[in-house]
Amino acid sequence: MCRRAKSGRPSQLALFLAALVAAVAIALLLAGVAWADAVTPEAGPTQNAIKTDTLYKIVLVLGLGVLALVWGVLFYSLVRFRARRGRVAPQIRGNTPLEMGWTIGAVTLVTVIAVISLLMLGDIRDPTRSGPAALAEAQNENAATGQPPVPGDKALDIKVSGQQYIWRYQYPNGAVSFQQMVVPKDTTVTLQIKSNDVAHSWWIPALGGKQDAIPGLTNQTWFKATRTGTFRGQCAELCGANHAFMTAKVVVVEPHDAYSSWFALTGQRVHATTSRVTCAIESDRGMRVSVLLVIERSFRWEGT
Q1: Fewer Cβ neighbours under 10 Å: the N or C end of the chain?
Q2: Cβ-contact 202, 248 below 8 angstroms
């Protein structure tokens, strides 16, 4: 009797899929940047971002241990106690030591995670002291409520206002910037965050401190960057049709050179612009009041 030859298509498809998976895996492994912070939070040059990343990794490792234990017992049981001819499976109605063991193990694991989280929470939540090279002018500029004061009372307070689809930052001297926040290195920066329209979320992943911007409510967060650089972020709350375009950028510069110059120049530009507009409309009082109201809304922090 002649048997019909089996088609080689299924095996060829399996080989093709295996080769495709292998090629993708090799490409990802060779592209080191593609794996950077792909599983854990991004940790940049700030204490709260590093501590958040560390805590996440601790919980991840513990979770993977539990997953490996459960899957190991599962697959061992599937193989060891698989059905066989002539064998009657034993009927087990309970195992008190086993049940006590996994109950105590689960309680112990949750307790360990809670203790570690509480021990690290302070470093994530509470602002740290500015470094010795911090900006000398950053004095007594702390967030007033909801956040512990900065040790040494030396911090730069910036008011962050979200509005479809742009971020506005107001500095202590009245200087205002949009989208791009410029801060000095090694200086604790406290942020007061609110929204003028809908809910937004200010977040620069490498700096930590993700915080919602809610209309009628002021939230606080902080960071202290220990190295210069440019760090990018994105509004993390769906806020409308153009939500994807609501980006943010923080530029960390040297405190006594680049930042001092930028800070003074930006403040002068804001005051000069206000003065020019005021002089241009001095003859028409009604228009003067209207334009000044627009300037106030654009360049000043709108408190709750």
Answers
A1: N
A2: yes
SS3 215: strand
Residue 126 to residue 129: CA distance in whole angstroms: 10
Plot region of 86 (φ>0 → left; ψ -120 to 50 → alpha; else → beta): left
Joined together, the tokens standing for residue 228 give: 């210069």
Residue type, 237: E
CA separation for the pair 89, 82 (Å, rounded): 9
Residues of the chain with CATH 2.60.40.420: 151-299
pLDDT for 68-116, tens place per residue? 999 998 998 888 887 778 777 777 787 888 889 889 999 999 999 999 9
- Element (H or E) spanning 219, and its range? strand 219-223
Helical packing angle, 47-80 and 96-125, nearest 10°: 160
151-299: what CATH class? mainly beta
CA distance 227 to 222: 16
Confidence of residue 255 (pLDDT cuts 50, 70, 90): confident
